[in-house]
Amino acid sequence: MGLIMKRIFEVAPWNVVTHKLDKENKRLQESLTSLGNGYMGMRGNFEEDYSGDSLPGSYLAGVWYPDKTRVGWWKNGYPEYFGKVINAVNFIKMNFLINGSKLDLYTDKISDFTLDLDMKNALLKRSFIVEKDGVKVKFNFERFLSVAQKELSVQKVSFENLSDDSVEVKVISSLDANVKNEDANYDEHFWEVLEITDNSIIAKTKPNDFGTPRFTSGMQVGYVTGLKEVDQTVDKLETSKTFVADLKAHEVGTIEKRVAVVTSRDYETIDDLRDAMEGIAAKVSGVSYEDLLNAHENVWDNRWSQSDIKIDGDTDAQQGMRFNLFGLFTTYSGEDSRLNIGPKGFTGEKYGGATYWDTEAFCIPVYLGVSQPEVSRNLLMYRYNQLKGAYINAERQGLKGALYPMVTFNGIECHNEWEITFEEIHRNGDIAFAIYNYTRYTGDKSFVLHEGSKMLTEMSRFWADRVHYSKRNEQYMIHGVTGPDEYENNVDNNWYTNFLARWTLKYTLQILGEVSKDQFEKLNVSKEEMDHWQDIVDKMYLPYDEDLGIFVQHDGFLDKDIQPVSSIPKDQLPINQHWSWDKILRSPYIKQGDVLQGIWDFIDDFSEREKKRNFDFYEPLTVHESSLSPAIHSVLAADLHYDQKAVALYERTARLDLDNYNNDTADGLHITSMTGGWLAMVQGFAGMRVHDDGTLSYKPFLPKKWNSYSFRQVFRGRVIEVAVKENGSEFKLVSGDPLQIQVNDKPLMLK
């Protein structure tokens, strides 16, 4: 399939850099230069006002608002609200006046422009020369969100007079609560200012009708500068200070802005919140910019030393891989079990900043490999702690047990498309799979035998109530669902959904045989219930076609006009931006892996013939218009030794946003699919598997266009380094106890 790509940044191993202010693709530039530290984040919008098209956005982890579901086609069971991440009080705002004339890069004459995201150090830099009214000034901007002090934003701006005459530069720096979301109903504002002073602002989200928490944020700003403060203004929504520099020829002025950002998620009262932001501001006030930056860079250096993936011979691939890892690390670092990974992270408003099944299916496998087990366990605890909401979701559908939400902040479903809310129920299986995946990878059974067994039991109760028994076929079936392929809605017997439902029941029965007597009694599962679950396992219908030798995506799929994606005219791709929804639903084209998702999940359980027949049938029908799609296809292609196809799909997943393949990166990055580079490399090219008996194995190959690649992997208290070169593979135990692994089905002892 011919892909259309839009590459607006240069290719470099550690940097996302351009020397062009691309006014037509400004939003795309902003998305690709986003920053975050797990606690907060922002798009790469400018500090100063920009009169052209822009989507400014700063976001605070775990801070959201329940927007009323506004639909005229209300159905019983619909969620009452749609949760959304909200634009935070703008704490980076700084405007500049040159001899009284406001700087605006959309209209001003500029030269020597550079925009540079340094991924190694998570530092965003910008510089340019502006000519206004006969004078020239060079500006340099730097900003970072500290990972050494999570509640700290740091900015540094310097400006040099390149003119022969003196130039006056005024800096008007603000904390501004006059912000809104572009996708909000009726241009509403979400923040009410409670307190505002000359250097701080405390704002609370406006009341809501749904009983969800209101959040309070506090921000206190401090400055380090030799500039003269000449004015300050405080109004209802904004507090500003004005500084001035009278610069002689080639004189330089500098100002640093440091903002302590705290929220009511961590501080119970206004007094606590105020004390916290004042304490952080005081703590950093005497520390130099260089020391603040060094502390931040040291954490990133340690992070990269554990998880960097090196690719020699292909800078495009190298940049893509690091950009993927950078996006994940800036979004989620795992210390806070109340947080999860939104599909856009801190890079945009789309998808509402909520949690999807992406976390369990795609993110946990990567975090298991690049971080300590506590990080993945916290993601599972997030779901355990929201079990109460999952009960409500099932009850609203008139069903027993627990149904985890498709989209959520608090465990309650907050997505309002019926074919997703009611029908994309495979998510219950994906979460069960994540419990199994964590247990298999880490060898730690403490979660599955306690919290996990409760989750599995309640999800199994849902499945047992959701299936129905077909007397005619003497099999259990599940009608009216949407699988991972959302280009097929309201279908009967989606193979992936049925397969995961059966597997969840089977796995739950296994775990119930392993839990302690006390835990079993707490779960209150009767023998009749367990017998019913076993009956469903034994008699679940899974669509299969004998002639083709494939698992059928759902009943009726093979009755479509089956034509490959290559038959679609290129000017009609992507189809989701050119075709009506009706036409898409009638077509055979697949948004993302569906049957193949299940084969990827349980890759050891299928024969070579089964994998080959299903991949050869379904991949040519897949348009990969979900960002999650290319990675798993790359892994399966590598497993089948379709090396060229595996590399092409790796390139698509690793550079999905950098090259804007799906023409939607302007809305924000695809954070959860940034797992794709790691999955395609480690599970695909290196053939890494963890088997049910705990054996770690590899079957590596080297793409022809690469000279070598290497990565480090965390596994059961060890760090292993894998290097794949033209003359073979090398495996090294960096730390931890000796371990026997398998390489190409032969044992190898690492010591």
Automatic annotation (TrEMBL):
A Pfam family reported for this protein in Swiss-Prot or TrEMBL: Glyco_hydro_65C
Glycoside hydrolase family 65 N-terminal domain mapped to chain residues: 18-265
All residue ranges annotated as the Glycoside hydrolase family 65 C-terminal domain in the record: 688-748
Residues covered by the Glycoside hydrolase family 65 central catalytic domain: 322-678
Family: Belongs to the glycosyl hydrolase 65 family.
Protein's UniProt name: Maltose phosphorylase
Lineage, uppermost ranks: Bacteria, Bacillati, Bacillota, Bacilli, Lactobacillales
